[in-house]
Design goal:
Blueprint: H1 11-23, H2 26-33, H3 37-51, E1 56-59, E2 62-65, H4 67-95, E3 101-105, H5 107-112, H6 114-120, E4 130-134, H7 137-145, E5 151-155, E6 163-172, E7 174-178, E8 188-189, E9 198-202, H8 208-218, E10 225-229, H9 232-240, E11 245-248, H10 250-255, E12 261-266, E13 271-279, H11 286-300, E14 306-308, H12 313-321
Parallel strand pairs: 3-4, 3-5, 8-12, 9-10, 9-11
Antiparallel strand pairs: 1-2, 5-13, 6-13, 6-14, 7-11, 7-12
Helix pairs in contact: 1-2, 1-3, 1-4, 2-3, 6-11
Length: 332
């Protein structure tokens, strides 16, 4: 039974369950909500009765979510977030202000592009409530498709019939080095010079990582030691700690410089491809249009960054997959 179709479930029950999951106990949830412990317990029990299954395992004062409880919690979080956004937007409409805005972006772009882009937008266009979600690239696309985000900035692939692609950019990957590294004296670092080094890079084999591996292979570099990470910021902090050199996308390095590290261009173009998307055929507000344009300007300030023709599918496919590759067979 879905809570979205149950007239007996009210928001207080959902808030009580979300608070218990957040606090880890009924007592903690009661403090968060400003209610009594028995009241919170009763709300959870009523919720379980309404949906027809247990959400929590109870062992004295200790509680843990059931498998169904974990799945249900994800739905509750989305529902409560949507209600909060509706309240914000209703208030903004009543006051004649820009409505609240939700932006989804990959962590590197959320940290390396969005802050400067938002700062460049006219203050009168910035809503009272602005939400930025740092998500995996696949989840950015899903958030925009589901319209839980007004627009997104993500790495490729972005092709989907439910999306409008506003711009696509190509920025070459860079190498991050400790500022004391001898290679820091070079303007351009050769991949071959990294052969004896521990290389830190991104782990996802279906996105940027396969292009990095391909470039290393073409340069005849077979790293003896590697560290895989799932975020560029983690790679940069490892460089600062002296654990190796990092081959990463440039957004994080440029947007969030780490003291003690430097960025240098590589002698091989390893493309980092990313763009801005919004739900197809949905009219954009002035705020969304302004942030998308500002994000493009910030992106183009990265070293070597250039725009691709978002409408040129063949050229885009060649850049992503290679001119002889099939998108169905080659990971992106």
């Amino acid at each position: 039974m879905s809570f979205m179709h149950s007239s007996s479930i009210d928001v207080r029950q959902l808030e009580a369950f979300a608070a218990v999951m957040s606090a880890g106990s009924v007592t903690g949830a009661a403090r968060l909500l400003g209610r009594s412990q028995p009241a919170v317990t009763r709300l959870i029990q009523d919720l379980e009765a309404d949906i027809g299954y247990a959400l929590l395992h109870r062992n004295g004062p200790r509680i843990t979510p059931t498998a169904r409880g974990l799945l249900f919690h994800a739905e509750v979080e989305r529902h409560l977030s949507s209600l909060a956004h509706i309240r914000e937007r209703a208030s903004a409409i009543g006051l004649g202000e820009p409505v609240s805005l939700t932006i989804a972006a990959t962590p590197s772009l959320a940290a390396g592009v969005l802050p400067q882009a938002i700062a460049a937008v006219a203050p009168g266009l910035i809503p009272r409530h602005l939400h930025v979600q740092a998500l995996a690239a696949e989840n950015v696309v899903q958030a925009v498709l589901a319209r839980s985000a007004d627009f997104g900035i993500s790495s490729l692939p972005l092709e989907h019939p439910g999306l409008d692609v506003h711009w696509v950019a190509h920025a070459p990957c860079v190498v991050a080095l400790a500022d004391s590294d001898p290679l820091a004296n070079s303007e351009v670092v050769k991949l071959s010079e990294l052969a004896a080094r521990r290389i830190i890079t991104l782990a996802n084999p279906y996105r940027l990582r396969h292009r990095i591996d391909e470039a290393l292979e073409k340069a005849g570099v077979e790293p003896q030691q590697m560290i895989d990470v799932n975020a560029s910021m983690t790679a940069l902090t490892m460089v600062r700690a002296g654990l190796g050199v990092a081959i990463v996308e440039p957004a994080t390095v440029v947007g969030v410089p780490i003291e003690g590290t430097v960025m240098r261009m590589l002698d091989h173009d390893i493309p980092f491809l990313f763009g801005a998307i919004s739900p197809a055929a949905l009219p954009m507000t002035a705020t969304v249009a302004a942030v998308i344009d500002a994000a493009r300007a910030v992106a183009l300030a990265m070293p070597g960054c250039r725009l691709l023709d978002a409408g040129g599918a063949d050229a885009l496919a060649d850049t992503v997959y290679g001119p002889t590759a099939s998108p169905e067979r080659v990971p992106t």
